[in-house]
Design brief:
By secondary structure, the chain is an alpha/beta fold. The protein has seven helices and 15 strands. The strands form two sheets. The protein has an eight-stranded mixed β-sheet with strand order 6-5-4-3-2-1-14-15, with no helix packed on it. Strands 7-8-9-10-11-12-13 form a seven-stranded mixed β-sheet, with helices on one face. β10, α5 and β11 (181-185) form a beta-alpha-beta unit.
């Protein structure tokens, strides 16, 4: 199974409009340093699953029939904005799974177009998409939000974004799941108090608790990128970049 980061930024990722900090100026000069809205593509060979849909170019990036299904973590605009153009395309309906948030986002439920919204998956209960098992995990955010545990032939990857810490039930569930890869929200450099997203201190605490073989930081702000210019992360923790691919179930775990 391969997971490609289509985006790794938060709503204030580099380059941020009007900001001339080092991280933002670097992202303008070197486009590979820029961060799109956090999302990913999961490819198992028989399945191509879009994980969140905040990128505005989805209707241009993918051709009709290329996506097997879409999984959404929640209905904030930076995670669903690309659906507003994609829904008016032509072709077969695309199944969409999301948390049971009755409000959704704007008029997506009223006018779904080719988006086929399905009944929400049950938290902590695995669901099979071909050979891939997917388990929804409740997170702590300002809107009803799920993370996901992906089990590919016994090798596990957890995606925990957007969140501020972990609910006790989710933390307890993951403690019993040996993780090969962990993708975790890390929006900010160290903060005294946080609300909707982890700062790096809390993200590293989650990583220490869950003890994955490899961890990846996503939903990074331009301030977090600035912090990374002058600070080191633990050896098994990396800040993900747009376009990077994780290969699950292989000793060669990363391609660019």
């Amino acid at each position: 199974m391969k997971l490609t980061f289509l985006g790794t930024g938060g709503v204030q990722s580099a380059p941020l409009f009007g900001c001339d900090c080092h991280a933002c100026e670097r992202a303008r000069l070197e486009p590979r340093r820029a961060r799109a809205a956090t999302s990913a593509l999961i490819d198992t060979g028989s399945e191509r699953i879009l994980l969140d849909a905040g990128r505005h170019d989805l209707h241009q990036r993918f051709r009709s029939g290329e996506l097997s299904r879409i999984l959404l973590t929640h209905f904030h605009m930076d995670h669903v904005a690309g659906l507003f153009s994609l829904r008016w395309g032509l072709g077969q309906p695309i199944p969409v799974w999301a948390p049971p948030d009755e409000k959704g986002c704007d008029d997506l439920f009223k006018h779904p177009g080719l988006l086929d919204f399905r009944s929400a998956l049950t938290p902590f209960v695995p669901h099979s998409f071909g050979a891939l098992q997917v388990t929804p995990l409740p997170l702590q955010h300002s809107k009803l939000t799920y993370g996901y545990l992906f089990d590919w032939q016994g090798t596990r990857l957890a995606w925990l974004c957007d969140t501020c810490g972990l609910p006790p039930d989710t933390a307890d569930f993951l403690h019993g799941q040996p993780l090969d890869q962990l993708v975790v929200d890390c929006n900010d450099p160290p903060r005294e108090s946080v609300r909707n997203h982890n700062d790096v201190t809390r993200a590293l605490q989650i990583i220490e608790q869950l003890a994955p073989r490899q961890a990846w930081l996503v939903h990074l702000s331009h301030e977090m990128d600035g912090w990374l210019l002058n600070n080191r992360l633990p050896d098994n923790v990396l800040a993900a970049t747009d376009g990077q691919t994780i290969t699950v179930g292989s000793s060669l775990s990363v391609t660019v």
